[in-house]
Amino acid sequence: MQKKVEEILHYFEQVNAVPRCSKNEAALCRWLAQWAQERGYATALDAAGNLVVRLPASPGAEGAPIVVIQAHMDMVCEKTPDSTHDFSKDPIRSHRNGDWLMADRTTLGADNGIAIAYAMAVADDAGLARPPMELLFTVDEETGLNGVKQMAPGLIEGRILLNLDSEDEGIFTIGCAGGTDSNLLCTMGTEKLPADWSCYALKIGGLKGGHSGIDIHKHRANANKLLARTLAALNAGAECRIVSLEGGSRHNAIARDAVAIVACAAEEARIEAVVAEMEKIFRHEYGEKEAGLLVSVAKAAGTPAAGLSPAASRQVVALLLALPHGVAGMSPDFSGLVETSNNLAIASVQDGRLRILTSQRSALVSRLAEATAAVRAVAELAGAEVKEENKYPPWPPRPDDPLLRRAKETYAQLFGKPPVIQVIHAGLECAIIGAMYPGMQMLSLGPTIRSPHSPSERLHIPSVAQVWHFLAALLENLARV
To answer: In this structure, are residues 386 and 453 in contact, taking their beta carbons and an 8 Å threshold?
Structure first.
């Protein structure tokens, strides 16, 4: 088994040698197509850049149903401030730390490069009993499941799909939430600032943030919300006008940092006192959950000529306060599972233009529509335009699915214990594929990955072996006619 693990990790290293940030997967796609063609496997490519590689069955299994192994080619490209890595040309450099594989101050790309490595290992293992197979490699998953949304009809023929994009060995995912992003846009009024006012940089930082789906139930602080509350407190004693504002970074992340440049009539000592009091309040509310929380204010460099009008400044604060964030409802069917949530992801004021991005998720289409309508209603009351995008449906769980039954039996026989079955409050490509191909049997699994989408990302090497052991046994099971 150790030899097989080293082989899989070698494939992974080859994948990591090809730069593949979201929307720049063409080089990896060409490399995979060439790899397949050198082995005599048929390939097909659709207009979006999704690639399928077709594998013949092992002798005697030609009549078995086609099984699809699915992975996405892109990765989140993040690095530490001191890293000189260039994601457009440099390979990902990995190293081992005990049982973990890590990168050098960058994301590792195990999400989802290790899945591609498994698919390559399946294709190259001449001794593996397998049904006829399709290896489906999709593009642009990390920015909103965009590649699979554009997948050409009929690109795959199989109706049994193994998605290898889960991140805990021994846990099978059988459903996920759907989602919608709402972009709020509004042109605000700007006016010349009084000459005797001072400008300050108000910052919220040190928050844990996290994934807006799988971490939303942990009730971590949202920097955009804390910034709005602090601005409201400043406005309560003396007029403050917003010059600029930036908070949050990604549609699927809870905002960790936010900063506003504000012009105030109040004395500096009073501003500092209000900010210190708000930090004290926030620390009391969140305690050790947000041990790194910081609220600071300092005089800003330079004096801008103009800022939002008093009414527009109040409007921005009111809108940020009113927009929903956090858990909106729990699932009645799965204990501990979030059913519906909202994430106030990004807020920006630049040159008199306001932009806010919120992300809604729900396991129910009707509740997703309700959450999205609530965001629209608040935005329109504030005079903002709303554009909804990045929509994808939920993946409804099917506990009686024949694929799940066989997978559970196989796992229990191998490891002497049942797998954990879960539904997640996040998006998976299975949701799109299931909508395209009604009746598709689907299961998501994978080795253990920690801190994906960050330079702390790491892959648990022993779990790579466990997943291969299970995958090979399941394919043998599915190859039986």
So the answer is: no
Is residue 234 helix, strand or coil? helix
DSSP character string of 242-276: EEEEEE---TTB----EEEEEEESS-HHHHHHHHH
pLDDT for 281-328, tens place per residue? 999 999 999 999 999 999 987 778 899 999 999 999 999 999 999 999
Total count of residues recorded for the chain: 481
- pTM value? 0.86
Residue 14, SS3 per DSSP? helix
| C-alpha–C-alpha distance, residues 94 and 111, integer Å | 14
The residue type of 130 is: R
C-alpha–C-alpha distance, residues 431 and 271, integer Å: 49
Please identify every stretch of the chain with a pLDDT value under 70, giving residue numbers as ranges: 481
Contact 114, 107 (CB under 8 A): no
Cα–Cα separations (whole angstroms), residue 447 to 111, 169, 467: 10, 5, 6
- CA atoms of 442 and 433, how far apart (whole Å): 9
E strand or H helix at 349, and its extent? strand 338-350
**Residue 235 in 3-state DSSP?**
helix
Return the active site residues.
Answer: 74, 141
Q: Tell me the DSSP string of 33-52.
A: HHHHHHTT-EEEE-TT--EE
Q: How far apart are CA 162 and CA 174, in angstroms?
A: 11
- By C-alpha distance, which of 386, 381, 382, 350 is closest to 190? 350
In this structure, the dihedral spanned by the alpha carbons of residues 284, 286, 291 and 293, taken in order and rounded to 10 degrees, is -90
pLDDT, position 481: 66
Instruction: Kindly report the number of other CB atoms within 10 A of residue 470's CB atom.
Output: 21
